Amino acid sequence: MPRMTANDALTSALIEEMRRDSRVLMFGEGVATKRRDLLEEFGAARVRNTPLAEGIIAGTAAGAAATGLRPVIDLLFAPFLCYAMDEIVNSAGKLRYLSGGQFAFPMVVLAATGAGWGVGAQHNHNIEAWFAHSPGLKVAMPSTPADFKGLLKAAIRDDNPVLFFTDLALGFTEGDVTDEVVPLGQAAIRRNGRDVTLISYAKTVHTCLAAAEQLADRGISAEVLDLRTLKPLDEETVLASARRTGRVVVVHEASRMCGIGAEVAAIVAEKAFRDLRAPVLRLTGPDAPAPASFPLEQAFVPQPGQIVTTVRDLLGTRDVRDVELAGVPV
Amino acid sequence: MPRMTANDALTSALIEEMRRDSRVLMFGEGVATKRRDLLEEFGAARVRNTPLAEGIIAGTAAGAAATGLRPVIDLLFAPFLCYAMDEIVNSAGKLRYLSGGQFAFPMVVLAATGAGWGVGAQHNHNIEAWFAHSPGLKVAMPSTPADFKGLLKAAIRDDNPVLFFTDLALGFTEGDVTDEVVPLGQAAIRRNGRDVTLISYAKTVHTCLAAAEQLADRGISAEVLDLRTLKPLDEETVLASARRTGRVVVVHEASRMCGIGAEVAAIVAEKAFRDLRAPVLRLTGPDAPAPASFPLEQAFVPQPGQIVTTVRDLLGTRDVRDVELAGVPV
Amino acid sequence: MTPKQRIEALEQMLLIRAHEEAAVALQGAGKAGGTCTAVGQEASAVGVVMALTENDQILTNHRSIGHLLARGADPRRTMAEILGRQDGYCAGKSGSLHISARELGVVLTSTIVGGELGLATGVALSRKMLGQPGIVACFFGDGAACEGRFHESLNLAAVWELPVLYVCENNHWQAFVHRRETMLVESITAHAPAHGVESNAVDGNDVEAVHDAASAAIAHIRKTGRPYLLETVTYRLRGHYEPDDQSYVDPQELAHWRARDPILLLKRKLDGEGVLDAAGQQRMEQRVRRRIEEAVGFAEANPYPSLDALTTDVYA
Amino acid sequence: MTPKQRIEALEQMLLIRAHEEAAVALQGAGKAGGTCTAVGQEASAVGVVMALTENDQILTNHRSIGHLLARGADPRRTMAEILGRQDGYCAGKSGSLHISARELGVVLTSTIVGGELGLATGVALSRKMLGQPGIVACFFGDGAACEGRFHESLNLAAVWELPVLYVCENNHWQAFVHRRETMLVESITAHAPAHGVESNAVDGNDVEAVHDAASAAIAHIRKTGRPYLLETVTYRLRGHYEPDDQSYVDPQELAHWRARDPILLLKRKLDGEGVLDAAGQQRMEQRVRRRIEEAVGFAEANPYPSLDALTTDVYA
Ligand SMILES: Cc1ncc(C[n+]2csc(CCOP(=O)(O)OP(=O)(O)O)c2C)c(N)n1
Ligand SMILES: Cc1ncc(C[n+]2csc(CCOP(=O)(O)OP(=O)(O)O)c2C)c(N)n1
Ligand SMILES: [Mg+2]
Ligand SMILES: [Mg+2]
């Protein structure tokens, strides 16, 4: 099992899928410049630079997907998707349905986000929840090199538009990577535990794992669940774990209101209600744009210490009330 | 107290605020054509038609707002905001923060949405949750003519960008209207009750009220809470009611995943946990684009009968489990 | 155009007109939702679509009935779609605003103004990369030409050498705003050279002129593999949608264009040339009217989709 | 330009270059995040900004240091902002990519390519409606001219008669893509006529030429109240951001433009004309270097914002 970085794992998924299926092509601003290896292997028709215009990049992908190709587009940073919302949401997400099923949109939209670069909110904005809220789309957000590869392979093979967000801070993390396709819609238990379930995705999965270590030192057994795909959401795995531990904390970098954490909490509060032993808590980024200043940017993201404190409060008393648990360091 | 339609109430808010403050101006595709009365009273500089380009309309509003004007723009239908996301989210929502507080963006974005016209998902898509999830923005969505007027007045006076969504089906409903400004961020109890709290906004507030009538006939006392402003959300009123009744059903037309209902459910599950006597339920539109076909479009929206059934289930047993309560008619 | 083609063109234009008028009546009777008609623009649709071959594909927008019928759409199914019925081309889910008919090569209709412009490049890219013959005709309005996507689309098609025929149906109106309020130049083609795209503007109410210009444009595309912008200058004789009293329209301008009704012009010509006299035209109109009556009958009798269709075809 | 102005221009250009080089060094030392430098484009910034008056306003983008310093920004505060410190112009929240300085009239900087184009019309509308004197200069790149917003902005400014000086700094690169891969025409000004906008393209490495062209453009705007598009043809001598090895850049093209370094050109001219000789230039460079060293010292000593700044200034 080769070890590689998440970035390399993503590239290797692209290469394998482009070898496997000649309908797969890739384009975006600088794709052909930055991915010379792909350009050389697959040629200028399948690996393309584009003009600087996200809307037409996404629209072209949608039009091509509906008529026989399987495009992967790189829109660079998540906030740039704001220029391509019509093409992604109104076209790719809705025109299958509105046409009575005449078309399908097998396409993948890549974009990076998350803290780590000190570039501020116009490059770093976790908007994955927007797409989870919209019909006809799928959303994946990996936490490990193996999933960067395996989930991307599944996304490319899927017949629906898949938003594939990569957490900037994970790009150079290393891990074992196989050829396996990781099916969309399956969460992974990253650590088994009895007392509390920490539910997360992308970078903050590792924050949860670090917190679980610290909690273990204090005799608290935390389960860590990695959602991996945000839509479709693996309700079953979430509920099974929530029922087992009776306590849930959802952790992510995206802001709280109407985020993935809200959805997970709502599902748990509805469907695991009678098994809950404590309030469902969320630890998220604050309701603020991401700042550039390094220490502020770091403080934006939930930290292991906050998770530890939150879990201890949760276990110490069965009715933690009105504790403000926004992402601000405690 | 004059009676008027919601549409007229909205117009009267515009007129009063434009009289009050010469910095208020309005523009959009067809605004000067459709609002002749405003054009005549305030002149062509303050009531403008625009080229057909939502992005630059919103960008112009943001630029003007930051430098001394107070624009109100009409972007017609909510899905058209997909062309203006950068200007609304990345500029108006973030540039105050990213500039260290140098600028403010007092602007209002009007858009209609919701079932009723049979025009399908590219005109009808309830995306209010996107903006609630984004920093720096406020979101209002009135249910009564009085709020069409009073909330819009507050929105125009607010120093932040406010998304003001109007539910198409409410435009011609009539009600008493005063000159009162309805502050952003205050929910309203539309009906008092003891057994369950129905939480909603816009058109489905009336669905909840109709359901509450039917429930009353069966001896069930339902409280109906109208959120009115979605961001900032009036947590206090929500929690007080949830604690009083111990049972919450959130109802809206927007789709379920990461919607306002998810947020309300998550807040309740966290902060009113020990007072809850039953799972928190959501009744929402399905995870599908809105269809044009009339009966399908109607079925898209939660109906009183569904609310009644849901509440009776909730009261009949304390552990309603895994009941599928999506917007599909039961 | 041969005399036979001109006769065929008239029949198609009459069919479109009758279809639009039937839709207006249904709307007035409360049986159909709001609909955007293309009354007055029939020559543009018919002239361009008749110049296409079977291999070519079409993208259109909210004002699409002309393009669909000229392409051979069954009026029973377009009418059923407008009424939201199960046998409409989109199973009732589209309604009047985004009808596509894949079997006819009318793909990915969008009612987001400019939506079709964003998609057309991708459709053309598929044809090119999959080695399929044919070009892609993309219909849009003068209003859509104000959206930035118009430029992004033309530019990408030019840079990537995509076989797209951009057809701007300049009908002088953008919903409730006159074209002159939204741009300083008279012709949309003014934008073409800066994108490196060939272009031409033509009298959009003269079906022969449209057909000839479209044929030349298509020949250019087939030869060079490059995009082409054709502007058909026409007029929206009815309101933006139904109902719309057009109170904001300059009566003189409207009268001017009413006198240039493309059907009137073609009828006069065919009669004058002795190709089809008044009696023959009347017979044709009756035939067309019967077809539309039958279509309305079909559509009204056609059931609504079953409620489970609410959540089908969301995902592939 | 008077000899005095030319000397001032050189000092500003040297200041910008030294500032960029210091930022590069800080980035290399791991003390600053990624930053986009405008090395090679100093003449464009200085030539245009010197042609503005105090009443005028500026919108800029990710490559903004030239515009800021030419406008009189304090290098201590720009440097502090780049390092995310509390006394940066944006209290450290912007970092290098969206520095605005309201007190200098540099408003609403956006790092979304095209963002400034979307906002400029509104800033100009405020000036016009509030009866404020002055025009609005909006700086953007050749890449931004590929975004549809470029066209939407020009068109609205033309139709509404807004006093905007659009300055397209055509530096031949759009991040990692050469301009020739993204458009078929040689000059961005090709788009202006179809929007009804006056335009001109100028050698962007000749500060006098830029200054003269900008002055003429600004005079036109002040006289007519209408927008104007000025293209400054220049070159990005360093990579897109730091670090960037420029391995994708044609060495010949780079060498060609290195020989046309705007600072080199101006120095040679001033020396040749006897306005400022080599010794005078050296003294100037030392002065500038000291100013930048001091700015770096200030910035490095300046504290980070306190953590509660994380959630301040989200709402007004
Ligand atoms: C993005 C977007 N903005 C606004 C609308 C509302 N709308 C529908 S058609 C129309 C006018 C379109 O004008 P034009 O492109 O000239 O086409 P025409 O209707 O004249 O055929 C408008 C504003 C829309 N559907 N989509
Ligand atoms: C909408 C958007 N797309 C992509 C980027 C990433 N990006 C930053 S600068 C840049 C190149 C911009 O080219 P140009 O407009 O010519 O300006 P230059 O950098 O050459 O000064 C790109 C692609 C961005 N910031 N915003
Ligand atoms: Mg039009
Ligand atoms: Mg450039």
List the helices and strands and how they pair.
The complex is a heterotetramer, with two copies of chain A (330 residues) and two copies of chain C (316 residues).
Chain A: E1 3-5, H1 6-20, E2 24-28, H2 31-34, H3 36-42, E3 47-49, H4 54-66, E4 70-77, H5 85-92, H6 95-98, E5 108-113, H7 128-133, E6 138-140, H8 145-157, E7 162-167, E8 174-176, E9 188-191, E10 196-200, H9 203-217, E11 222-226, E12 229-231, H10 235-245, E13 248-255, H11 260-271, E14 281-285, H12 294-300, H13 304-316
Parallel strand pairs in A: 2-3, 2-4, 4-5, 5-7, 6-7, 10-11, 10-13, 13-14
Antiparallel strand pairs in A: 1-8, 6-12, 9-11
Helix pairs in contact in A: 1-8, 4-5, 9-13, 10-11
Chain C: H1 3-28, H2 42-50, E1 57-59, H3 65-70, H4 75-82, H5 115-129, E2 136-141, H6 148-159, E3 164-170, E4 173-174, E5 177-178, E6 198-203, H7 207-224, E7 228-233, H8 251-258, H9 262-272, H10 278-301
Parallel strand pairs in C: 1-2, 2-3, 3-7, 6-7
Antiparallel strand pairs in C: 4-5
Helix pairs in contact in C: 1-2, 1-9, 1-10, 2-7, 4-10, 5-6
Bound molecules: thiamine diphosphate (2 copies) and magnesium ion (MG) (2 copies).
